[in-house]
Predict the structure of Outer membrane chaperone Skp.
Amino acid sequence: MPGWGGLARLVTILSLLALPVATFAQEPVFNTPLVTGELSSPILTLESDRLYAESAFGRRVQQELEAMRTDLVSENERITAELTVEEQKLTDKRPGMDPAAFRALADAFDEKVQSFRTAQDDKAKTLDSFNEDARRVFIQAARSEIFAILQETGAALIVERRIVIVSADEVDITDTAIRRIDAAIGDGSDLIPPHP
């Protein structure tokens, strides 16, 4: 059994070992409860794809795009069916027609088909452009909220989570940012109206 001197040294050593733990437990991890956890970090992470997809803004845009793509597919199917019927009628006429006259009708039909394809491709590109434009508007609108989180947490940097090899969940601010952005801009109807 150690003497009083040895016991005093042991208590002193244990006290010193416990000091950093006690100090760490008493200090807030961040300057605000926006991000909580066991770690304090000058670097936060954010999943930008999830930020957009799970926000009210992103969900609204995706629903509109899905509806527009469904309409476009239905239109493609309807026009394709009409062109198929027209092509069959043209084929049925061929045996009793003058070759030059048939060639003129066939060329006109081919031109019609090509025009249809071009028009439908343009519509698909318009949908893609709408999606890209909406995402740019969202990023611009979200920037101030994300910057506010950076300032409030006292962090120095926010990085894209998918490019980070390993990180703690506690430093990810995606859910917090979604809530803040939803509260600030809602579904973004006043920023980018529904696509016609």
Summary: Residues 99-153 form the longest helix (55 residues).
